[in-house]
Structures are given as C-alpha cells and as structure tokens.
C-alpha cells in the first residue's frame, strides 16, 4: 500500500512541471515597437471602422425617388472608385484583404462572421451581412456588384468626431501573447459635448507582423 502511495506521489511530482507550463508565459516585448505598431494599425483601421460599423460604403439610390429603400442595393460606383484609389478596396475580396492586414486572425474571423455573413437563429436570419459580392448571372439579370445592406445601423450616428491621442500611449497589460496598449480618445457628440477618456486596444504579433486583436472604434456614447 505504501509503495503504491509513493508511486502515485512520484507521478504527481513528474506532472507538476507539465501542469505549471499549461499557463501561457507572458511574452517579452519592446514597448516603443509595440506603441509604434499600435499607432500605425489604429490609423489603418479608421477606414475599416467606418466601412463596417459607421456610415459604410454608399449604395446607389433608386432612380425612382419614391421607391422604398430596403434590403440590398449595389454600391455607389463613385464611392467605390474613391476607396479603390486610396485604399485598394473595390469588392468584398479586397475588403477582406485590407482587413486581414490590420486585424489578427481571430479579429478578422470575428469581423467576417458578423459583418460579411448572415447570422441566423431559430426563426431564420436575425442579422444581415452588411456586404456581399453578387455573381453575374445572365439568366436572372444579376450583376457582379458589391451589394450593400441598407438597414445597418451607424454606430457613429450620435458622434460628430473622434480624435485618438497618441501622446503618452503605453503598454498597460500583457497576458500571454496579447499586449494591451492604452491611449486617450477625445470624442465630440452631435450635441457639441466633448469627452476625453482612456481607451485600450489589444495587439498580437503574427507571422506578418503586429495586428489588432479586437475592435478599435470609439464612439461618444
């Protein structure tokens, strides 16, 4: 009996290093490098925040001024041309590519699943994809267009402006591979009210470099 006890104790001791290693070690980092990457990525994310959660890509207005605006409409060609010229975004695939250049794999998958995919529940679709790429079909008359859902809410509807204040930005937390950076944002509401508050973003380093590990948009409310 005693021998079995010591064997069990020995097994537990041998397992301790393995159990201890289950907690992911906090990564080492150079703060100036992380802060510089955070600033660059936040600036790159601004247009994506606007496309996914803000006013979005404009859609073509119906020729009939009295027509009800609902469902999906083709993207406005003039707006798409401007996005392509400045950001290289001309369709859903290039939008995905630009998104992946800014966000981590986890962040990217979250955006695709919530903004570029219909979300269904027990009673059908509960949230429509904000954009999808239609496929040309001569039989149905469908064209190869970036389609925009007209019913998406603009999270900036009560926000007049957002200013990210990078001066004094610093690393404030590290958990495993994820590094949290804190800066300040100054927001102005549509009513003219202004607020300045701390704002955090998470970063993670992948093969292609640093990426945002979550959303970076800020609103007044």
Which descriptors would you attach to this protein?
221 residues; disordered N terminus; alpha+beta; 3-stranded antiparallel β-sheet; 4-stranded antiparallel β-sheet; 29% strand; single chain
How would you describe the overall organization of this protein?
This protein has helices spanning 2-20, 31-53, 77-87, 92-102, 105-115; strands at residues 72-74, 119-121, 124-127, 131-133, 146-149, 159-175, 178-189, 194-206, 209-212. It has 221 residues and is α+β, with helices and mostly antiparallel strands. It has a domain at 56-149. The strands form 3 sheets. It has a 4-stranded antiparallel beta sheet. Strands 1-5-4 form a 3-stranded antiparallel beta sheet, with no helix packed on it. Strand 6 (159-175) and strand 7 form a beta hairpin. Helix 2 (31-53) packs antiparallel against helix 4 and helix 4 packs antiparallel against helix 5 (105-115). The N and C termini lie far apart (67 Å). The model is unreliable at 1-23 (pLDDT under 50).
